[in-house]
Specification:
2 domains; 13 helices; alpha/beta; five-stranded mixed β-sheet; Nucleotidyltransferase, domain 5; Transp_IS110-like_N; about 300 residues; Helix Hairpins
């Protein structure tokens, strides 16, 4: 059995081959077609490759090995760090690719390692994982803009931050666009409700709109803005609202796709049967559980 340990970096990797004859061969290759041809020249039918999962940096390598049906083993970063740390007490070689190869060479349960190779890559959950990651990215981006929006509102009409706890909601965004400064409410009473209702009437009951508008109108009477009504902050607030609305649409689309992908899996049915779980939370929880299982399975390398 030949073993190749690979230390993955951005765009390229350093590798160490340990042959059946205990020869040690160091080489490096780029993450492109010509680079993978170099890697392929060291691969035999009995070769096992081991490397640390490094997110997007190792994605090309993983895709190549899958396409070539090469046996490979991915270690999660924490496990790789702990296991290689134990080797550092006994080894002086600074090459992490060599240490990774030694993990396989020194394993006591080699049969289990062989059987486990590529096991996690065969799971039909890649789409779910990608959608979950995208969902979290969008939520993070929207939260960043929401924080900017709330900071601007503190200058123009700070009470709005207390009235609208969910600043990304349809009604909140519309009120922010129309009445983000106290001067914009001068002389308005019922007209305010009717104007907002024209934009959001299809989604929200008029009674709810009227209740919020009353709170805004009363707050404006005692509010003291830090900037005038013609400040550039007003235009910036409107732009923030547009950005958040755009994120809302994309988040809703990803949520729908995430749930549709998850409902096809038997594991989802079990998780969603928990009272109060909900479809979205069940789909996200399923991804967490699957990643945890991969880490647990990887612990067989010992």
């Amino acid at each position: 059995m030949n073993i190749i340990g690979i230390d993955v970096s951005q765009g390229e990797s350093h590798a160490t081959l340990i042959t059946e004859e205990a020869e040690k061969v160091a080489f490096k290759f780029k993450h492109n077609k010509s680079g993978f041809q170099i890697l392929n020249s060291y691969i035999r039918s009995n070769t096992i490759i081991i490397f640390e999962t490094t997110g997007v940096y190792s994605a090309q390598l993983t895709a190549y090995l899958k396409s070539k049906k090469v046996k490979f083993y991915e270690l999660n970063p924490l496990e790789a760090k702990l296991r290689m740390a134990s080797l550092r007490r006994n080894k002086t070689d600074k090459n992490d690719s060599f240490k990774l190869a030694l993990l396989v060479l020194g394993a006591t349960q080699l049969t289990e390692i062989k059987n486990h190779c590529n096991k996690q890559s065969a799971l039909p959950y890649d789409s779910l994982r990608i959608l979950s990651l995208r969902y979290k990215q969008l939520i993070k981006c929207r939260t960043r803009i929401l924080n900017f929006l709330r900071s601007s509102l503190e200058l123009t009409f700070p009470e709005l931050n207390q009235i609208f706890k969910k600043a990304y909601a349809v009604l909140a965004l519309q009120v922010f666009r129309m009445y983000c400064h106290t001067d914009f409410l001068a002389g308005l009473t019922l007209k305010m409700t009717n104007r907002v209702y024209q934009f959001v009437s299809r989604r929200i009951h008029k009674g709810v709109i009227q209740s919020y508008c009353a709170q805004v109108w009363l707050a404006a009477k005692d509010s003291y803005p830090a900037v005038p009504a013609d400040s550039l902050e007003i235009e910036i607030i409107s732009e923030y609202c547009d950005e958040i609305e755009s994120y809302n649409k994309e988040i809703a689309y990803i949520q729908s796709k995430l749930i549709k992908t998850a409902v096809r899996l038997d594991d989802f049915k079990v998780i969603s049967s928990i009272p109060g779980a909900g479809q979205l939370n069940s789909a996200l929880l399923l991804v967490v559980i699957l990643l945890a299982l991969i880490i647990i399975n990887n612990s067989m390398l010992s």
